[in-house]
Amino acid sequence: MSAFGLPPDSAPAAGLAVEILPDPAVVANRAAELVHQHALLAAAERGSFTFAVSGGHTPWAMFAKLSGEDFPWAQTSVYQVDERIAPAGDPRRNLTLLRESLGPVASVVGLYPMPVEESDLAVAADAYARSLPARFDLIHLGLGADGHTASLVPGDPVLEVHDRDVALTGPYMGLARMTLTYPVLDRARALLWLVTGQEKRDALDRLLGGERSIPAGRVANAHALVLADTAAAGD
């Protein structure tokens, strides 16, 4: 059984379990349900729930739903998987949308933003790494049309960083990023991929096929579940 309680025959040969759902709204609802389950289990077993989140519209819809749930927010710590190097409040920042999605519970949850506004970003990345839990209970990941996940993007030297938990990237789509690295992703108790949109179809096929030529394909998948909509899955 996987970390999501799925039978082995639900996963393709590459080892990634996948659920195909009708549209992004249903993906967000299903994701919220699974995050809620993980949070309750972690809080009951370990007294806390550590969760790292990526950007994107679907996860923000997930958080909007979670904010109205009977959720162990006071026992929850939310970290960022990656963040753009941009000023506070910049609409391109994942943190800006994350805070909006959390709404009133943002004042209750333990929120750990990536320190991308610091003058010495290398020192800031090391400090953020020291704030991470030894092992995340759950990490949410997205998938780019070019096969990137987190800010592990094709051709960037960050793909070869294995001795640091947090690293900096070169410019990507106009901005440098701070990102968790593969070792952190691979240590997580569970990974939840959310993939929606027709433009993700090729990347999703390659991810599910186990292609290590794309950055996303290099993430460990033994404790992972992909939630995809029919547009991304080609169904």
Gyration radius, in Å = 17 Å
Q: State mean pLDDT (0 to 100 scale).
A: 91
**CATH-derived architecture:** 3-Layer(aba) Sandwich
Helical segment tally?
7
Share of helical residues: 25-40%
Our measurement of the CA-to-CA distance between the termini, rounded to an integer number of angstroms, reads 26 Å
Give a short synopsis of this structure:
By secondary structure, the chain is α/β, with parallel strands linked by helices.
Secondary-structure map with pairings?
Blueprint: E1 17-21, H1 24-46, E2 49-53, H2 57-66, E3 76-80, E4 82-84, H3 94-102, E5 110-112, H4 121-131, E6 138-141, E7 166-168, E8 177-180, H5 182-187, E9 191-195, H6 201-208, E10 224-229, H7 230-233
Parallel strand pairs: 1-10, 2-3, 2-6, 3-5, 6-9, 9-10
Antiparallel strand pairs: 4-8, 7-8
Helix pairs in contact: 1-2, 2-3
List keywords for this structure.
seven-stranded parallel β-sheet; alpha/beta; 10 strands; three-stranded antiparallel β-sheet; globular
What this model shows, in words?
The chain is of the alpha/beta class and 235 residues long. The protein has one domain (26-233): Rossmann fold (3-Layer(aba) Sandwich), CATH 3.40.50.1360. It contains seven helices and ten strands. It has a seven-stranded parallel β-sheet with strand order 1-10-9-6-2-3-5. β9, α6 and β10 form a beta-alpha-beta unit. α1 (24-46) crosses α2. The protein is globular and about 45 Å long. The protein starts with 16 loop residues before the first strand and ends with a helix.
